[in-house]
Design goal:
single chain; 545 residues; alpha+beta; 8-stranded antiparallel β-barrel; 11 strands; 56% helix; 21% strand; rod-shaped
């Protein structure tokens, strides 16, 4: 059995050796055919190589090469694809080169076909692309040039003519000169010069000149992306230069709100962020709350880089609110006390962990004490001399108020048109009644007019002090008899010697709570005997000025 296997191995080795020798002979013959460009014979011999060595890719490769040379590109690609799975490193390189050649051949065929069909733009672009793939193929470049010149695409033509390889060809010189002299190319040159000058000015920092040059370019080509981009950059750089030259918050914010592309947005926002912090801190130290809030609120709303900036601004606001509110709460004037309440409330809105209600209540009590609203009043008054009257005036909290009082006793209105009598008993009036007898009854009446001032002592008590005049009249009851002793009438006779006007003063207290007005005091016309005074009372209603 062992002898059988040994003989089988010897026979197999001999067959492999024979096949290899035959493959080498066929491949040598294939090389000769390819050198003579006998492509039909190559296509016949290729399958023989495959039959001889079905697991080697060489036969497939040669067949693909033959189909490529006769223009059967799809068949060439199919056979080459079969060769890929059965190739070595050396054959892989040859397959890759053939793939590129097949692709390029297809592109050449496509470009020629488009040119025959009159699709000049597509054909010229294809020829130019083929030339860029292999610049040794000058004919591709010439094909593209022919089409560009015919169709007036002078700029595209010049791009090829300016290539160093083409420039070496003497025949390109007159062509280049002719193209350059066309009106179209002169406009192109103006455009290119303007863009070049714009870029140079932009690079050197002359942004205003760069803007001018790019605008010139855009007059020639309004939609050119390079000129538009250059103009946008130059305009932005000029705007930023002006902003930094002025170097104010307003100039930087104007840059950010402007219509440029804002390449320096980050830098501007960083500067503004630092400025908001700087001025916020400065005005916080000064206690200028309004300006501090302006800068710190802008920091939080517009220029904070992260949450830490917001937290810092809130902390500075809270600390300043507390400090300024505490200082203002010690004042007696309305504005500082009102501001103290406002600032405590604002601190509470930002710092929910602290309760400021006790501080606010304390300030409210102080505000109420010193800054209750000023009032006017109207009161009815009565005293032990004059039984009816009216008083009106003002009750101020921080300054003097003024008032006027008018009082009278109804007896002052008594009058007699017939008789008067003086102290010596002389009567005047109808004299037919000689017999006039005093009844002994005397009545007196008074009328006061007073002007004065009010001053708050401590809410709700005011003191009032006034002065004026008191008009006093007296009457005596008389009985008149005729000449026959018959009773004629009884009448009140004015005592003219007792009709006087005297100065008068009054003083007292006013209690005014919840709009209800109470008053009480004394008045006198006897400045020698101050114990001779009259008591005065009143009640009324107060209302806002």
């Amino acid at each position: 059995m062992r002898i059988f296997f040994t003989l089988l191995a010897i026979v197999s080795a001999g067959m492999v050796s024979a096949q290899t020798s035959e493959f080498v002979r066929l491949e040598s013959r294939m090389a000769a055919l390819m050198e003579k460009e006998q492509w039909d014979d190559v296509l016949v011999l290729g399958p023989d190589l495959v039959i001889e060595e079905p697991f080697r890719g060489d036969g497939y490769y040669y067949t693909a090469y033959g189909f490529m040379k006769i223009g059967e590109l799809e068949k060439a690609a199919d056979w080459l694809e079969k060769a890929k799975g059965m190739s070595d490193e050396q054959l892989d390189k040859k397959i890759s080169e053939l793939e590129e050649l097949i692709e390029r051949t297809a592109l050449v065929s496509e470009a020629a076909q488009w040119q025959e069909q009159g699709q000049a733009e597509k054909s010229a672009a294809q020829w130019e692309e083929l030339w860029k793939m292999d610049k040794s193929q000058i004919e591709y470049a010439l094909n593209a040039l022919d089409i560009y010149i015919v169709t007036g695409e002078y700029e595209a033509a010049m791009a090829i003519l300016d290539d160093p390889i083409i420039q070496k060809d003497p025949s390109s010189i007159p062509l280049r000169n002719a193209v350059n002299k066309t009106p179209e190319m002169q406009q192109v040159q103006k455009f290119q010069d303007a863009v070049k000058s714009g870029n140079e000015s932009l690079a050197s920092g002359n942004f205003a000149l760069a803007m001018s040059r790019f605008n010139q370019a855009l007059e020639i080509r309004p939609s050119d992306p390079d000129a538009r981009s250059g103009l946008a950059k130059a305009a932005d750089e000029e705007a930023w230069r002006l902003a930094r030259e002025t170097d104010t918050i307003d100039s930087l914010e104007e840059y950010l709100s402007g219509g440029t592309i804002k390449n320096h947005r980050g830098e501007a926002e960083q500067i503004l962020r630092n400025s908001m912090i700087k001025f916020g801190e400065e005005y916080a130290i000064k206690g200028d709350v309004d300006r501090m809030e302006y800068y710190l609120d802008k920091l939080k709303d517009e220029y904070a880089l992260d949450q830490a900036d917001v937290e810092y601004a809130d902390g500075l606001l809270i600390a300043t609110y507390e400090r300024v509110a505490k200082a203002n709460s010690r004042e007696k004037y309305y504005n500082p006390l009102s501001n103290a309440i406002t600032y405590y409330n604002r601190a509470g809105q930002l710092n929910t962990e602290v309760d400021y209600r006790s501080e606010i209540r304390s300030v409210e009590r102080r505000l109420k004490r010193y800054h209750r609203p000023d009032l006017n009043y109207l009161a009815f008054v009565h005293d032990t001399v004059t039984n009816i009257g009216i008083s009106f005036g003002g009750l101020k909290n921080r300054k003097l108020g003024f008032y006027m009082t008018y009082r009278l006793d109804t007896d002052v209105l008594l009058s007699s048109a017939d008789y008067t009598m003086n102290e010596d008993g002389s009567f005047s009036g109808p004299m037919e009644y000689r017999d006039v007898r005093a009844e002994g009854n005397i009545r007196s009446g008074a009328m006061d007019v007073i002007f004065g001032m009010t001053k708050k002592i401590s809410y709700p008590v005011w003191v009032y002090l006034g002065g004026g005049i008191s008009y006093i009249r007296e009457w005596q009851k008389m009985t008149m008899y005729d000449t026959d002793g018959v009773l004629y009438q009884t009448d009140w006779v004015s005592l003219t010697d007792r009709e006087v006007i005297k100065p008068m003063v009054e003083v007292g207290l006013i209690v005014n709570a919840k709009r209800v007005h109470f008053r009480g005091g004394v008045k006198t016309i006897d400045f020698e005997n101050l114990e001779d005074f009259a008591l005065s009372f009143g009640i009324g209603y107060s209302f806002f000025e």
